[in-house]
Design brief:
145 residues, mainly alpha, 5 helices, 0% strand, disordered N terminus
């Protein structure tokens, strides 16, 4: 049996689960602000794309190294830690840009965006919401009909 990396299928959906939530939150804005917000998200996405690709490459490399004869667990952990740090930095840049955008909105529009963003976080499984892995666990543990 040859040792080496196992081919990986790319995910069918977006690799960034926050992206749809941010786009959904845009619906709370007036049409002109919505267009500017979506434009901001696109620009920020392009700006962080190289770093996110690098992080993905590090993850692929780390997980692919599990099949190596001379597997280096510490090296794989370092690659994964670096990938997490890169993703956290990218996320921070996008969130900072969203906050800067919101700061320029009138108070009522900013409040609507804030409510939509909070709803997006809860809907995605944050702050105790039932999204993400929590919803999957509930579905798996539910009795069969």
């Amino acid at each position: 049996m040859p040792a080496g990396p196992v081919p990986i299928q790319p995910p069918a959906a977006s690799a960034d689960p926050a992206r749809p939530a941010l786009r959904r939150a845009a619906a709370a804005l007036a049409p002109a602000d919505r267009a500017r917000f979506v434009g901001l998200l696109k620009a920020e996405g392009r700006r962080v794309r190289p770093d996110n690709r690098r992080a993905r490459g590090l993850r692929l490399q780390a997980w692919g190294s599990l099949a190596a004869a001379g597997f280096d667990a510490a090296g794989a952990k370092d690659e994964l830690a670096t990938a997490r740090a890169i993703n956290q930095k990218s996320r921070g840049q996008v969130e900072d840009a969203v906050i800067d955008f919101a700061a320029a909105l009138p108070a009522d529009e900013r409040a609507r965006l804030g409510g939509a963003m909070r709803g997006a976080v809860v809907g995605a499984g944050g702050a105790g919401g039932a999204g993400g892995a929590t919803a999957a666990r509930k579905q798996l543990s539910a009795p069969s009909p």
